[in-house]
Amino acid sequence: MRARGGIWDRLTVTFALSFCLLVAGLSVGIVLGELRDQLGISGIVAAAHGSAFGVGMLVLGAFGSGFVGRLGRPRAFWGACATITAGLMLLCAGQVWPVTLLGSSLAGVACSMLVLLMPGIIADHHGERRGAAFAAVNGVPGLAGITFSLVVGAVIAAGGSWRWPYALITLAFAAGVLVAGRGQSIPVSVSEPVDVLPLFRRADVRVPWLHIVHAVLVEFPVGIWSVAYLKEVGGASSGAAAALGSIWGLFMFLGRMQLPRLVRRFGEHTRSLSFALCAAGTLLMWSGPGLWARVAGLTVVALGAGPLYPLAVERLYERGGADTVSLGFVTALASGAAVTVGPLMLGVLADAVGLRHALLFVPVLAALGMYTARRDMASPQPTADALASV
Fold it and tell me: What is the DSSP track for 114-141?
């Protein structure tokens, strides 16, 4: 059933709250440092706690269309929400790393299902108003992420355990989804299952896909490891590191909200500028000195990283000669590849050379991004109007 009146009907509130639950599933980075200390795990095992989302995006992006078609959108949606909640309860209750890893993996795969479902559900529910609805539904979780960082950080700073606030906030979001969505009818998909893998034979899909992978490789590892970095390298206490980690979500959100204005101001140089900020910010995080210089560096990275993913996705939709459903699964495969590889790469490097020096792969990738962005300037660029609803 199509939405009537304003954007914020009950079903849209349900979608926004489900994305708050998604934030809970992806906030494991806030407690990576605590997990390493409590369970004595390596950087690779710690990074694996945040990599299931990427693996899920890869598998579901490649083969999930038929699965969702057989299961149906409503069952897939509610099943994803329930699995995120159950997985995070395992994460919070687990006292050994196989249990916490199982919990975060269940939540991560379910989060990837939610990400795949939501664009189509919102588009079918809101029709021509989908752009404004996307912006609204994606805006609320940014505030949820900040709340997670501040509340969990405050409890840790007071000498408490991260486990009970993490669990209670998750349960609150799950209850909100259940109450708001009770009796609501989720739009049923009428599209045919999509086989996206043959599309990668075409350069107009393959090259923009690589640009999305590149963008996420620059942004995501910094975000998922930021709290652990501020604690282990910056010398922040556990509580302060978790609270300061909210800077990442806040300034990423601000960067994306200002993207149309940035494109109007800088035009074809927007991508180069974003990569340059990411390189400068990570070098400041690496060099310091002290905690606050590294916090400033994280802020610069977040501002620079914010526009990268929307710009790359918009480029795929401009150039990719395929329907929007197929391109949505292509985007999922790109995100999944980067979200899987990036944090694990940083974890492996952290075990080999230490977390401080491990971060240096990000400015290298950012410098490569500046080069590819300059080569790409001759082609048509995304307009501010096209990006206003990303």
Answer: HHHHHHHHHHHHHGGGHHHHHHHHHHHH
CB distance 28 to 149 below 8 Å: no
Q: Give the up-direction half-sphere exposure of residue 211: CA atoms within 13 A in the CB hemisphere.
A: 29
Count helices and strands (H / E) in the chain.
19, 0
pLDDT in tens, 218-272: 988 898 888 889 988 999 987 888 788 888 878 887 877 777 788 888 888 888 9
For residue 74, say if its preceding peptide bond is cis, omega within 30 degrees of 0.
no
CB atoms under 10 Å from CB of 108, counted, come to: 27
- Closest Cα partner for 169 from 62, 23, 300? 23
Placement of tokens 């590889």 in the chain: 341
Q: How far apart (Å, rounded) are the C-alpha atoms in residues 49 and 62? A: 22
**What is 158-219 written as a DSSP string?**
TT--SHHHHHHHHHHHHHHHHHHHTT--PPPP-SPP---GGGGGSHHHHHHHHHHHHHHHHH
Locate 119 and state its tokens: 């664009």
**Over the stretch 123-156, which tens digit does the pLDDT of each residue have?**
777 666 655 566 567 667 777 888 888 888 888 8
Q: Which distant-in-sequence residues (6+ apart) come within 8 Å of 175 by Cβ?
A: none
- Give the length of the chain: 390
The rounded distance, in Å, linking the Cα atoms of 233 and 222 is: 13
Q: Could you tell me the CA-to-CA distances from 257 to 110, 136, 184, 350 in Å, in that order?
A: 27, 11, 30, 33
User: What class, spelled out in words, does domain 9-185 have in CATH?
Assistant: mainly alpha
pTM comes to 0.73
Q: What is the DSSP letter of 269?
A: G
Who's near 112: CB < 8 A, 6+ residues apart? 53, 54, 55, 56, 57, 60, 332, 336
| Interatomic CA distance for residues 223 and 228, integer angstroms | 10
Tens digit of each residue's pLDDT (9 = 90 or more) over 361-370? 999 999 999 9
In the chain, where the domains are located: 9-185, 194-380
Q: Which fold has domain 194-380?
A: Growth Hormone; Chain: A; (1.20.1250)
